[in-house]
Every structure is written in structure tokens, then in C-alpha cells.
Amino acid sequence: MTRNERGAGHGHRHGSSNAHGDQPRATPLESRGGQPSEQGPRGELREDRHIGSTDLTHWYTPLGRQTVRLAERANDRLGPNATLIVTLVIGLIIAIALSAAAVQVYDAVTDADGVAGFDQPLLNFAITLRSPWFDAIATGYTDIAGPIGMPIVAVGTLLVLGIHRRSWTPVILIVAAGGGSLLMTIAGKDFIGRVRPPLADAVPPYEYSPSFPSGHTLNAVVVAGIIAYLLILRQERLRSRVLLISAAVLFSLTIGLSRVFLGHHWFTDVLAGWILGAAWLALVITAHRLYLTVRADHERAKAVAGSAP
């Protein structure tokens, strides 16, 4: 069975739209005007609704179903794309709140000499591994997730996916993911103002902005994660999905470790980048799931209205 056949054969189910518990009929999602079925909003419902056998529009928990009901109300007033943007804005507020919470956690572990106790020993160990050629490789690699490299990767990907899929969704998700990562980094640095490791222990070029959290690490988790997610949606083979996830995780981990190796961040900064990045990525993916859910409702409502006498 192809993904198109599977997408057409599964009804939208989140446990809230159908008050009688009946399984709703699938919306006909044939392409219009010769447009390929994998493009545009209708193509999103065919191609992006499932990851393997998992239906992303099926919500299993009461909290999830309640969130869907709120999103559907917003959709009735604003439409699917605007609802996605509003959901992301709300998620960003939550993410910034998480950054503020991270400040409290940072203070706690620093005062108790908990995780922060690993900072200096790990930096000392990293210094023993350095060599001119290894330093040059690590510097070039870490720049991929920097303020120049990461925007290039993000913009290039959103252009390719947006044009190929004829959809604003990849553009909105990647911009939101990257923009949220930037705002969380700025908020964390302003709240903490932590000093980076001594320049004598760092590999040039030196960096002078506050250290906590690691913006490179946060960017790597969020941007690589959302790109991998968008690509996974169109992959039928389990092996392909596993490879994409593994590549994103490996990239995020090694970017973080490169920051410690180069002496540009303490390990605590990198750990915060991994945690905050994963939290924000989860919120962005949840927003996309809500978008798919309300889009499916929107398409089904149009189909019902069109078939009414």
C-alpha cells in the first residue's frame, strides 16, 4: 500500500471532533488542476500525516484532545496557516519561560556544585586532545552551527522544501524554529551573563558574548531537528527515517562537544543548549501536528459542504 492510499484510507481521529465516537470519513484529497498530490496543503495531508504507522493527527491524551479543541476554535476564526503561526507564538512564550526556568536550574546546580562540577575537568581533558590540525577541523565544523553557517543551511532548506512542496509550512516551521532558538539564546545570555572559559584555555578566534546557554548547540538541535523531521515525513522506509534521526542527533551532539573542545563554552552551557533545544523542537513539532489536525478538519468540512444538496 502506498502512502497516498494509506492517507486516504485513514479517517482523522483525535477524539474530540466527532461527539458520537463514529470514525469520520476520509477527505478526498485528489490533486487539482494536474498539481501533483505531494504538493500544496492537500499534499501535506497525504504525505505528512503519518510517520510509519503513526497518525500525527490522532491525539491519545486528554490534554492533547483539549489542545486540539482550542486549535480548532482558532482555526474557525483564523484559518490553518494563521493558527499554526499563533500556536508557534504561544509555544515561543513557553520556550522563553523554559529559558527563565533554566536560569533557576543553573543557579541551583552551580550553588550545589552539581553538574557544573564537571565543567573545569572536562575543559582540562579537552585541552589535552588539541593539536593544530584537529583545532582547525573543529573550528570549521562548529562554524556550521554559527551565526552565519546555520542561517545559510536553514534558508537553503526552507527554499528547497517550500518550492518543491508548494507550501508555506516548511518555511514557517524552519523560521519559527530558528527564530525561537535565537530568542532563547539571547534571553538566557541576558539573564545569566556567565563568563566564558578563560581565553588562555580557548582556541581562536575568540568569542566574548555571555556563555550560557550555548547558542551553537541550541541552533544545532533545533534547526537540524526540524529539517530532519520535515524530511522524515516524506520517507516510507524505516531505514531512511532512522538514518535521518541519527544524523541530526549526531550533529547536535558533536556540535555541542566541539564547543567544549574549543574552550568556547563550559559543559553546563552545552547541556543547557541540548535540553532547551529539545524542548523547543518538541513544541514546534506539536504545533505542526495541531496544524495537520485542523487542516484535516478544514478539508473535511469543505468536502461535506460541497456534497450537501
Give a quick rundown of the structure:
This protein is mainly α and 309 residues long. It has helices at residues 3-9, 40-47, 62-78, 80-111, 119-129, 132-142, 149-165, 169-192, 215-232, 238-261, 267-307, and strands at 50-51, 54-55.
Summarize the structure in words:
Residues 1-48 are annotated as: Disordered. This is Phosphatidic acid phosphatase. Keywords: Membrane, Transmembrane, Transmembrane helix. The chain is mainly alpha-helical. It has 2 domains: 3-79, no CATH class; 84-294, Vanadium-containing Chloroperoxidase, domain 1, CATH 1.20.144. It is built from 11 helices and 2 strands; from the N terminus they run H-H-E-E-H-H-H-H-H-H-H-H-H. The protein has a two-stranded antiparallel ribbon with strand order 1-2. Strand 1 and strand 2 form a beta hairpin. Helix 3 packs across helix 11 and helix 4 runs antiparallel to helix 11. The longest helix has 41 residues, at 267-307.
